[in-house]
Amino acid sequence: MYPFWEVPFFTSGLVIALVATFHILPCHLATGAFWFNVYVERKAFYEKRPELLEFLKKYSLLILIFCFVIGSLSGVGIWYAATVASPRGISALIHNYVWGWATEWVFFIIEIATIYVYYYTLGRIDEKSHLTLGWVYAWAAWISMIIITGILAFMLSSGKWVETGGFFDGFFNETYWPQLFTRTALMFGIAGAYAVIVASTLKNKEVRLELVRTASIWGIGGMVLGAIFTFWYLFKLPEHAKDLAFGGTLPYLKSMLYVAAICYGVVLLWFVIFGLIRPSLSRPVIGIIILFILFAGIGAGEGFREGARRPYIIDRYMYGNQIIAYNIPAKNIKAEVPKFQKEGFWPNLYFKPDNLDLSKTKDRLLAGSVIVHHQCGNCHALDRLGKIRPLSVLLENLAPESPGDIADFLDALGDYPYMPPFAGNDKDKEAAAEYLFSIVRR
Ligand code: HEC
Q: Does the Cβ of 399 fall within 6 Å of ligand 1?
């Protein structure tokens, strides 16, 4: 185990969730936008309509700054946050998918180089070559999505990989195709929303109305298809995820889906009313408010995906607290819970205070705190005033009367479908229970 990253009041998971949710807007815009750009540029080129160039210039500048400055920064942010929050999770992914990422980065570099050349040569080189640049970007960006979706989907449903350890068995797993189709459709929705906002700032009224309407049609198409593919995606979820979300175990997951659906509906209505029916009413300010709604909807949708994955961070392979859950002989990976239950968790920790004497209460409490941080802290806030599933409050609800009661609870932890079993021997459990008893809010 690596040192634990504690985020006061919240959990490290929430930090990743916030950064990642934000990142989705620029990254889906980056993949979707150029299909629309190329469409408009072809119109400008083949129908000889130079007045459309104003839009191309503004839209590509937006993509350049929003996706390749803010988007790139938040992308790196996800790496930093995930690396400190779940070093073993990231390490597991890198060990399996480093060539996937390497391939993605090749396409990513093509994207970055092309967008700069595209923007700065707009109207300066011959139209046909410029259009080719647009196509190169559009394809490179979408191919990067094809690749990254495999790795994301692997975390939710690891497919036959848990038996074979094969790269493509994990990559093309049960939720790969539905996720790829949903994300592809959604990228047109997101690109459409941004295109409507940019189009509604254009000076030429005729072009403005025309492009607002066309971008809305793209957006509506993407969102309607996205909704259909989402059902396919939900249908393909692993059984335990379906049980958590729809079997009543964690009802708030279903509520998250409703929130996402409502946000989705609002954005769709905006496209229809302010884009398709009355493009003259379209204003950038309304569009920006819509972006916030979109952000909330995406946050709820991604929150659902993260939540439905419990108790794992990588389906069946690794628990949320980074302890390995499954024997995967093909990869020489061994489940760790039996090992820790036999040998103890404490002796297997590398980063811990030196020279603790577990027969002394004070030292035991400190050891218990370290154990609990590792085993519970990824999902639960440990501060007294913690906000995300604070253990002090959850335990209070169970009204334990002694550390022994908490030890009994720890024994039954694995019976909860959303929590990993306690991975330690009696000594670990005793220390953890004493520490937990000391933080129960009374
Ligand atoms: C993979 C994430 C995860 C880990 C790791 C985890 N929990 Fe939980 N725990 C949850 C979820 C999810 C809930 C449901 C409550 C919620 O979501 O608000 C929960 C609920 C609880 C509850 C309330 C149970 C009830 O019946 O009301 C307690 C107490 C609890 N956890 C203790 C622990 C302890 C102690 C540990 C560490 C030994 C731990 N949890 C590890 C995810 C986790």
A: no
